[in-house]
Amino acid sequence: MVDPAVAFDRRMMDRALRLARRGLGRTAPNPVVGCVLVRDGRVVGEGFHPKAGAGHAEVFALREAGSRARGATAYVTLEPCSHHGRTPPCVDALIQAGVVEVVAAMGDPDERVAGRGFERLKEAGIVVRVGVRQAESVALNRPFVSRILRGRPLLTVKMAASMDGKTATQTGQSQWITGVAARVSVGRLRDTHDVIMVGIGTVLADDPRLNCRIVGGRDPIRLVVDSQLRIPDAAQVWSSSADAPLWLATVGAGGERAEYLRRRGAKIIACRDDGVGRVDLNDLLKQLGDLGINSVLSEAGAVLTGALMRSGLVDRLALYLAPMLIGGVGAPGLLGNMGVDDLKEAPRLHGAEISRVGSDFLLTASLGDWMRDEACLPV
Question: Does the model's pTM come out above 0.85?
Answer without folding.
Answer: yes
